[in-house]
Amino acid sequence: MNRSSLASRTGTLFSGLALAAFSASFAAQTPQTLPTARLIAVQSVDSVDTVSFPALDRDWLAIDDAARQEEDLPPRYAIVNDVDVTPESAGTWEAVGEDSLLWRYRIRADAATSINLGFTRYVMPPGGRLFVYPAHDDLDTRGPFTEADNETHGQLWVPLVRANDIVVEVTIPASERGELGLVLGAIGQGYRTFGTNGPTAVPESGSCNLDVECLDAGDPWRDPMRSVANISTGGSTFCTGSLINDAANDHKMYFITANHCTINAGNAPSLVAFWNYQNSFCRTPGSGPSGQAGDGSLAQFHTGSFFRAASAASDFTLVELDDPPVPAFNHFWEGWNRNTGNIVCSGGAPCAGIHHPNNDEKRITYSLTDMVPSSWSSTPPPTPGDGTHLWVHWATDPPGPFTVPG
Length: 406
What we know:
single chain; mainly beta; 6-stranded mixed beta sheet
């Protein structure tokens, strides 16, 4: 639904310039990629209307997450608090300059690993900007979201901010206050981290998974790996999916994922796709370093989609992301074919799956034996069954070649 954005803005470089330039024509004269509160002198964040949530029961969540895993449900990283917040019902307004208004709302969640927001109504007037950022630093800023992010489904889901104390900020021309339409309907309280080891981390991926950074520069899998994204839905769960081309080869933003990721027409607007979430280094699978924290970034994202099709039998869901490609994200669209026979794989020409196992940074896993059409839950030797799935034998040791720095 919103324009794909790069996060982690830094305001200090421009603050002096902005203060000097601040005037009645605020929107035209200040850098548009920086929050207003980072540019000019405004009320202290400690005076902003604040809502607080108590710490979550981690022991109960651990038990519930284990039960969800048994049911093959997507991993959960946050608990969503249903709210009904508007700029009329909460938050703090103040005038900035002669013809602009600033609205801020502070959100605290005790011991949270992150906070994410779902605006169940989002209508931004011309000249308006929305940011979400940590209350005390610029390390994980999301935005700006503007009039360009108004979508027919009417929602905006802001990706997680790695902080437990955040600020929602809106700056609009004073003449447009009556046209602003915001309803904050969901506040996701994070309790698990990603790509890290520790008591709040999602379990690490298996030893058969290889960091994609291990692939040589000319490796043929380096192009398909760019199609894969980690996705959040409903501000609560994560899965993996990928861009897929259509017969017209027109690079529409069709995105395919598993049906068991539970995306449907009702929650498709809440989908957030994180691109290039991968480590900058290569580690030997199964080694000690491979089980340690990664350094993947969640800064490149699209948010919002439209539901297009799904099948429980073959476990797929197809959505269309509601914004165009971003050249800086270096997208790739996977191909497909209608063959019904075995897919030939071998040591010399392995097949591969590229994914985010247990929500870790992007990995590649190989199959050196043929993939066989079969049914769900078929065991070796697989039977043809209903042909809705492929039986795959994953290699426990990646075949390479790859180079691990010494």
